[in-house]
Amino acid sequence: AVVNALIDDYGLNRSIIYLVGGGGSASVIVPYLGEKMGIRHKIARNAPYISTIGVAMALMMERLERSVVNPGPEDIRKLRNDVTEMIVKSGANPDTVEISVEIDTQKSIIRAVATGATELRTKNVAERRKTPDEMAKIVAESAGVKPQDVSLAAQTGGWYAFTAVKTGRALFGLIKTKKELVRMVDSEGVIRLQKNNAKVVMTKKKNLPARLSELIEELTVYNAGGSMLPRIFLYFRQKNADLSGVTDKEQMMSLAEQELEFVDDEEAVIAVAAQG
């Protein structure tokens, strides 16, 4: 039940995930669970020691929320700075810190979640880099297409944006369908984002405000209840930023500006926009 809940909560693709076992009883529990659920499984190297090593290498997280009526850019900036200070004090490498901001207008709450890695994990990542060809095979498997149908659309820092076109049939095979799939992959070959019918744009930071505004306008859905903004994700250097926690375009643009505050104007940024 717990594994199923995690798969549903994170929208994971059952056809590509692995159950990886670590700890003293992993060799007994994980194979049984994998066979029971029909999910591939494997035992991690040095599994009996994985618990203690995992503590040293684990990703860190800090959460901070405040009650603010109609928060503005300065409220968001202050909350981001405070949660960043918290996680760095806890031992996270500042270069790995990523922050997501969520605004709950009904409860007048602004919430920031910071994640980061310890120095030990950062050093190990460099030893596990995948080549673009290896990444393309991983993407093809996740999308259910052939590797030759996968294209590298953009790359910057530790991020690789792959696209693939998947065709199918609907209405008893009478109508041909086509989806453009987007997968964001990190340097370890881990798919960090998967979206269908999304748009990928790579541009210099100085040009991002204009391009981002165009993406938001193009993909915003208007209906009787108001408007629904697209989900926007930014990728730069070794970091990524999820801008989808805010409720209007002005807040989204302000949050993007804050995320890229210390990025040079000439540096490349990848933006992925999708509905839902």
Concise account of the structure shown:
32% of the residues lie in helices and 36% in strands. With 276 residues, the chain is of the alpha+beta class.
Helix-strand blueprint:
Elements lengths: L1 H8 L8 E4 L4 H12 L2 E4 L6 H8 L1 E9 L5 H17 L8 E7 L4 E9 L1 H7 L6 H12 L6 E7 L2 E12 L4 E12 L4 E6 L2 E6 L3 H12 L1 E3 L2 E3 L2 E6 L2 E4 L6 H11 L8 E7 L2
Parallel strand pairs: 1-2
Antiparallel strand pairs: 3-5, 4-5, 6-7, 7-8, 8-9, 10-15, 11-12, 13-14, 13-15
Helix pairs in contact: 7-8
Labels describing this entry:
276 residues; alpha+beta; TATA-Binding Protein; 4 domains; four-stranded antiparallel beta sheet; 8 helices; 15 strands; 36% strand
Explained architecture:
The chain has 276 residues and is α+β, with helices and mostly antiparallel strands. It has 4 domains: 2-56, no CATH class; 59-128, TATA-Binding Protein (2-Layer Sandwich), CATH 3.30.310; 131-196; 198-276. 32% of the residues lie in helices and 36% in strands. The chain contains 8 helices and 15 strands. The strands form 5 sheets. A 4-stranded antiparallel beta sheet has the order 6-7-8-9, covered by helices on one side. A 4-stranded antiparallel beta sheet has the order 10-15-13-14, with helices on one face. Strand 6 and strand 7 (159-170) form a beta hairpin.
Low-pLDDT ranges? none
What is the helix tally? Answer: 8
Report strand order across the widest sheet: 6-7-8-9
- Portion in helices: 25-40%
What's the domain count?
4
Gyration radius over CA: 20 Å
Give the overall silhouette: globular
Oligomeric grouping of the chains? single chain
Give a quick account of the main beta sheet: strands, pairing sense, barrel closure: 4 strands, antiparallel
Query: Structural class, from helix and strand content?
Result: alpha+beta
Q: Tell me the strand percentage band.
A: 35-45%
| Alpha-carbon distance between the two ends | 25 Å
Tally of strands? 15
Query: Quick check: average pLDDT?
Result: 85
Give the SSE string.
Answer: HEHEHEHEEHHEEEEEHEEEEHE
